[in-house]
Design brief:
Chain lengths: ~190, ~70
């Protein structure tokens, strides 16, 4: 009787495996998909965070399906992960290149803007009298705005190593502030 | 480092102010106009040494950079 029971259990197990032809391929697809997601995590999580989050969601859905023994669904969900990871990696690389170009421009241009502002502010600080359209209070405000912008630029340079998007956002704000100060000092963009 | 050694400024980042010399101008008058203080005329002379040899000699039509 015991032997019959064992045989019945074995027969059931064989039947289950026979009914799950997707398990092996699903397991392999999951393994490859997870590796593809992990491979792009560094830049993708920084530069294409929404798309990367969707990709992780797809991986989790595949893992969950596999855990529930829904191998066909797991295989379907995991099957496209590697290709989608490549798309996300491309989007991240494009965004990184765009931000890098923006930051390179800001990093080259802002110091020269700041130098022009500092030169004029330093000269006006030495003046015994100020021009007709300038008061001591206004000059002090402009100096203060310049000091703040200079401080923010130093912070942006530090941030650039960790968070390029934040550095570019800060750099653009500093550029806008510097343009306001320049306009108040009568300085105009070259060529205008 | 001389001005010529500086990296090129990207477009939109270079700010400047220019003054075109008219009859009766002196560097002191120009300094008075832009800085409020005529005694600062040497700042303008120093910034325009490429075209000025003597702070007392400026010519009508010259375009001076106001630093």
């Amino acid at each position: 009787m015991k032997l019959w029971k064992h045989l019945a259990v074995l027969a059931l197990a064989i039947a289950l495996v026979a009914c799950s032809p997707d398990k092996g391929p699903a397991e392999e697809a999951l393994k490859q998909g997870a590796a593809a997601v992990e491979q792009i995590r560094g830049d993708a999580s920084k530069f294409a965070s929404e798309q990367f989050a969707q990709l992780e969601g797809q991986l989790k859905a595949a893992q969950d399906a596999f855990a529930k023994k829904e191998y066909k669904q797991a295989l379907e969900a995991a099957g496209g992960l590697a290709a989608k990871a490549q798309e996300v990696a491309k989007a991240a690389a494009d965004k990184k290149a765009e931000l890098t170009a923006s930051w390179d421009e800001l990093q080259a241009g802002i110091p020269q803007m700041m130098e022009a502002l500092k030169s004029r502010l330093d000269i006006l600080a030495q003046a015994k009298k100020l021009p007709a359209d300038m008061t001591k209070e206004k000059l002090a405000e402009l100096q203060s705005a310049y000091d703040e912008a200079a401080k923010q630029f130093e912070e942006a340079k530090t941030a650039a190593g960790e968070d390029l998007a934040r550095a570019v956002e800060a750099g653009n704000a500093i550029k806008a502030k510097a343009m306001e100060i320049a306009a108040s000092l009568g300085l105009t963009p070259a060529g205008q | 480092m001389s001005t010529d050694d500086k990296p090129a400024t990207p477009a939109g980042y270079k700010f400047e102010q220019w003054h075109e010399v008219v009859a009766g101008d002196t560097l002191s008058k120009i300094a008075k106009k832009y800085y409020g203080d005529a005694s600062l005329y040497m700042k303008i002379f120093e910034a325009n040494k490429n075209i000025l040899k003597d702070p007392d000699l400026i010519k009508v039509g010259q375009k001076l950079r106001i630093p």
